Amino acid sequence: MTWLTGAVAGLCLFGGADQGGSYAAPMHENDAAQVARIVTERFHEEFPAAATEILLVPTDGCAKGDTFSPAITRELRSAGFALASSRELSPQSHVVRYQLTNDQKRGVFLRLFINDTETAQYFARRADGLLAVGGPITQRRAHQ
Length: 144
Fold this sequence. Notes:
alpha/beta; 30% strand; plasmid
């Protein structure tokens, strides 16, 4: 990665976060699908799929090769969650943003923002190339 590419990626990541956008670094489709499945399982633990609407805040075009956004959309829909298409939300709606960074050799770091709660999780790359939970989940509410 050149310094310019890194600078643009950093601006997209941190600029998108400040402006309320999502960011997903390019990654292999299998990694994106695996993280999307884990995120969807966590949604199931918190919310009933049939009664929950989710607004996935878009990535604002920062990451070319973003495979996570389509993967999480597919996973949530196949699990029975309704996806909102606008910011006119119902009381059962949850606004979701994410920041996903990828080090192809070491792993993936996910920051997931659901309403006013931020959850962070690291997924380490195992010797066989697959991802595994690489540390504890940290969670905090906004303004803590």
